[in-house]
Every structure is written in C-alpha cells, then in structure tokens.
C-alpha cells in the first residue's frame, strides 16, 4: 500500500515528508513518515521525486599543508555588545598547519571590503608570495563578495569554500572560535562596552593563544612554536627525556614511549582514503 500510494499519479512527484501530511488531510493514515522512507529505500525508490534536477553540493577539494603559510582558514564570529541585539564582528585568519592566528580585526559590520583589507594586510605581514597560500572560508557575503574575490585574485591567493550550511567543512576556524568563546576572560555576561574594549581583549587573546596556549593537536607546543619550526627541537628533547626515563626504569614501561613526533601533514577536508593513510603514517612514525 505504501508503494502504491507513493507511486500514484497524485503523489509520485512528492517526498514522504509531504505525502504523509496530505494523507492526513484526507483523513487517511497508512504508515508513518519513517516507514514510507524505509520501504522506498528498500525498494531503491528513495530518489529525487521531481522533474527538476536535485540540488547538489560537492565536498570541498581537500588541501594538505606540510608547512606554515600554505593553507589558511578564516571566518567571522559575533562579539556581544552591551546593546541587546547589536554585535561587534571579529574577522579572524588562522594558519591550518600551525593553528597560529596570523591576522584579525574587529569591526561594527560585515563587508567584503573589510575582509579584503584584512587578507591584504595579513599577506603583507606573513610575506606571502602569489600562488603560495589557499584561503578557506564559508559562503558568507564577506567571503564571496566581488571585492573580496578580486583582492584574492590580485594577491594570487587561491579561494576555497565550504558547502552551504555545513560547518564541518571549516573545522579549524570553528574549533578556534570555541576556544575563544570559552576562554575564562571572555565576557559572556558583562559583554563588551565599546569596540575598543573588544579589540583590546582580542589583542590579549591573540598573545595568549599564539605564545602560551599548549595546543593538544600540536603535541602541546604553542602555535607560534609550530609556525616558526621551533616545535621540532622541543619535541625532540621531550622524546629524549622519555627514552632516558625508559632506560633507567624499563619495568615501568609496557610499550613504546609517548609519541612526540610532530604531525608532518595537516589536511583540510580530507576524504576517507586520506584519513586512513594519515592514520597508517602516524602508526608507522610511532613505531619508529
């Protein structure tokens, strides 16, 4: 009965989420919406039930970084003001490989022009050459405005965009914003009184995050140490300490020492094969 109803002339172009309510309007109950989906799926009929072409959003191209200033991720987040409903906007660019905040600014509005100015200044500060860096973001108007796209083309920066409404495509910026919003000094209750106060707080947060925060994804070195390459020496010293400790008291170790090998490749939006290959590489490095 489910198949006959779904394939009838009246309902053949509709999805179960629309069929079930229309049946209820007729005073009929055949099955739940989930049952309609289950039966259609089992019969391999759960496809786009309309003449128009279904909307598709392809997963963003995967990019891999083996050093700093190869892949940047950026986004805009709200900073609460003391006026209900009004916000300041934090524009923030981070390096995917090192997790370092390489550029930021706070403004009272969102615009492609302000985004362009920040990207331009960050490229100057980091001495970026044309074709050197990929800049990933979501699909907001400040990211895809004509002014911004023209600036990226002029700078030789390759743009990359998330799928609409898919925050997982920009995980590095989302993770950084969570760290920012949950920092003990973030004024969730008192809020920022002025834009200058917001900028002053962001200045302190950048200094803490880049130079003091021991990042768990970086084997607990700071983003700035990772960005400059100093992490290699630090982690090598930690490895030597653990090897020495194991030699002195081998009875306290049931397996290899803690893995202090730095991650050599960081991938933005990897596919499943890349994830498996990365895991295998990590296991080989640890065994070595």
Walk me through the topology.
Blueprint: H1 2-6, H2 16-25, H3 33-42, E1 63-65, E2 71-80, E3 87-95, E4 101-107, H4 112-125, E5 134-137, H5 141-144, H6 146-155, E6 158-161, H7 171-181, H8 195-211, H9 223-228, H10 231-248, E7 266-268, H11 272-287
Parallel strand pairs: 2-5, 5-6
Antiparallel strand pairs: 1-7, 2-3, 3-4
Main attributes?
Nucleotidyltransferase, domain 5; extended; 288 residues; 5-stranded mixed sheet; two-stranded antiparallel ribbon; alpha/beta
Summed up:
Helices cover 42% and strands 14% of the residues. The protein is α/β, with parallel strands linked by helices and 288 residues long. A five-stranded mixed β-sheet has the order 4-3-2-5-6, sandwiched between helices. Strands 1-7 form a two-stranded antiparallel sheet.
Report the uncertain regions.
Answer: none
Question: Number of DSSP helices?
Answer: 11
Q: Termini, distance in Å?
A: 62 Å
| Average pLDDT level | 89
Instruction: Specify the CATH architecture of the largest domain.
Output: 2-Layer Sandwich
Helical residues, percent: 40-55%
Structural class, from helix and strand content? alpha/beta
Largest beta sheet: what is the strand line-up?
4-3-2-5-6
Total number of domains = 3
Question: The CATH topology of the largest domain is what?
Answer: Nucleotidyltransferase, domain 5
Please write the CATH class name of the largest domain: Alpha Beta
Give helix and strand order, one letter per element, not per position.
HHHEEEEHEHHEHHHHEH
Q: What summary fits the major beta sheet?
A: 5 strands, mixed
Give the radius of gyration. Answer: 25 Å
Large-scale geometry: extended
Q: How many runs of DSSP E, i.e. beta strands? A: 7
As a percent range, the share of strand residues is 5-15%
CATH superfamily of the largest domain: Ribonuclease H-like superfamily/Ribonuclease H
């Amino acid at each position: 009965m489910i198949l006959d109803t779904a394939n009838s002339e009246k309902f053949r172009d509709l999805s179960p989420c629309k069929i079930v309510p229309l049946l209820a309007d007729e005073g009929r109950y055949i099955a739940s919406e989930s049952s309609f989906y289950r039966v259609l799926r089992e019969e391999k009929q759960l496809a786009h039930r309309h003449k128009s072409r279904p909307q598709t959003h392809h997963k963003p191209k995967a990019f891999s970084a083996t050093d700093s200033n190869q892949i940047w991720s950026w986004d805009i987040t709200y900073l609460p003001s003391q006026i209900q409903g009004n916000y300041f906007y934090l524009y923030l660019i981070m390096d995917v490989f090192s997790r370092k905040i390489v550029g930021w600014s706070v403004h009272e509005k969102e615009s492609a022009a302000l985004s362009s100015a920040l990207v331009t200044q960050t490229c100057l500060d980091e001495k970026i050459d044309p074709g050197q860096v990929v800049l990933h973001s979501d699909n907001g108007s400040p990211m895809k405005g004509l002014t911004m796209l023209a600036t990226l083309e002029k700078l030789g920066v390759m743009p990359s965009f998330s799928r609409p409404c898919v925050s997982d495509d920009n995980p590095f910026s989302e993770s950084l914003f969570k760290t920012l919003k949950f920092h003990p000094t973030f004024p969730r209750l008192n809020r920022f009184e002025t834009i200058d106060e917001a900028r002053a707080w962001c200045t302190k947060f950048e200094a803490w995050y880049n130079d003091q925060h021991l990042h768990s994804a970086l084997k607990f070195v700071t983003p700035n140490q990772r960005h400059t390459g100093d992490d290699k020496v630090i982690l090598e010293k930690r490895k030597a300490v653990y090897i020495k400790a194991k030699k002195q008291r081998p009875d306290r170790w049931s397996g290899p020492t803690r893995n202090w090998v730095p991650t050599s490749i960081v991938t933005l939006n990897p596919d499943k094969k890349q994830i498996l290959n990365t895991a295998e590489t990590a296991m080989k490095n640890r065994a070595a």
